[in-house]
Here is the input.
Amino acid sequence: MLNVHFTAGDGKGWALDEDLRQIKASIGSMVRISGPAAADVVHAAYWGNLLQVAPAILRDRFVIAHADNPPFYSLKQVEFGLGSQWVDLWVARSTEAHGQFSKLGLPVVHIPYSIDPKLFFPILDKRALRIKHGLPPDAYLIANFHRDAEGSDLHTPKFQKAPELFVIILKALMELGHPVHALLAGPRRHWMRRQLREHGIPFTFIGKDTGERDDFGTNILDRPTLNELTNAADLYLIPSRWEGGPQSVMEAAACRIPVISTPLGVSRDILEPQCLFQSVREAVDCIASDIRNRTLKDTVETHFNRWQANHTTGRMAEELRLLYEKLPERMQTRPEKAHRFKAHAQSLAFRLLNRWDPPAPARSLRIVHQQGLIASMDRLMEKLTLHLQEMGFRADSDHPDLILTGVQTEQNQSGTRRIPTIQWMTPDLPPDHILPDSLIVTPSVQDVLELKQHGVPNPSIVLPLLDSHLPSSGQPDPLLIATGDTKASLRIWDALSHGIPVAYPSDSAYGEQVFLGGLPYASLEHSDEVLKQLWTEASTFQQLIRIPNQEETSAMLYRLLRLGSLARYPSLVFP
Here is the structure.
């Protein structure tokens, strides 16, 4: 019987804790739960929590990690480049995520997200539920229980969840005269409530009003209450830019409630095509039709059947047990793990070191770059230098413990080969200029895929260095990215920073830049239709464009500079 160490969830009773509970319930009888030192396997319900385990232990255990978000998104988390090197097997929770892991060349199995059918199920008396929770009996009730604020910053809309799209859709429906009423629940709904009040959109919030104080520990509702609220709604609306799940699409399907969503995560696996939208117009047309004629009613049974077949806790338990039955075969090539006494010492030393000397950014930096060879690289390295200066870092140390580099020649590589190196790149940098022992920083996910296509094995992350947002005046012509153009990331960032919507090939990864600020197209004929829509609805798409600001970029740079300290073993960050 294998000894398995499960890393922590989120500690708040939210999605990650529920995932961890389900995983343990599924395989608990097949394994012995242990601490990290005694473990044969380290199993993380969230890959980021692997950073809480000593790298020396992760190095010779079999590591399984679930991805709470699709890997294309995780490439924008600087720690992913570190964590992905420890993971022997990824668990993808949707076909979308499985495809992305495969494109990145990472070992993966598909075990879909699930929810417990004992917690979410249909309740037929909708009127009684509305009376119980003080909801209007005759309004068309549109539910959304996602958080809408960035962490504890209750004034900034959460980029992932796109609450601004929810508000724009409901505002458009109100202007058309439809009797919509928003149903909100869960913590950190402050931004949404302010916006709905400002636009005169009626809503009900189920929870305790804490004013301007963070309510994360107060307004997390229990599952039975969420089940009742879901059943009380006429429609569940998911406007997110990306999702690992979301669980809400499964909850709505299990309750036999109509649900529409942007095409992401599990939504692609469960929902009918007519329930997937990519623009405000598509969402408004779909909802308006349902208000008039209940056109979404016919999708409910199909969604329920897909959920029941593939996304219940029972199905997930079967898949996890099958994975563990075959795990000894996968583990045959693993090196022999350290003696338990040594592993305990490594684990204790790691915890004490992080307590007494918390991870910090590199103390001495040096930028190494050959000017005048590639213009886009020259501009990029100038931006990097400026960002570091504004953060209080100098990058001219004679004795650096970290090299930041752009274009290197044989001459300026001398003396830097043994120093951990982070190399920035633009699409103009030839793959053969990539240093073999460097961590690569790219402008976009599409650039990472290009490196993989050219056989570059280096760990890569996405961290664009952009100019300030410069809104476009008037109605700009959208930017069209041609089919097969794999080097357009900088042009896309420039367009978005000027408020210009983008049309991009649907088989590319440019959607990870554009999100709701443009549309994909599948063919040349389709591109004409997409360009027309982007032009006629330019103001709406402009409202949804979002690029990283200077504060966000500085925070990511800071995290990048502390990777070596975080790992405590630089060779695990920089191969």
Observations:
- The CA atoms of residues 373 and 407 lie 8 Å apart.
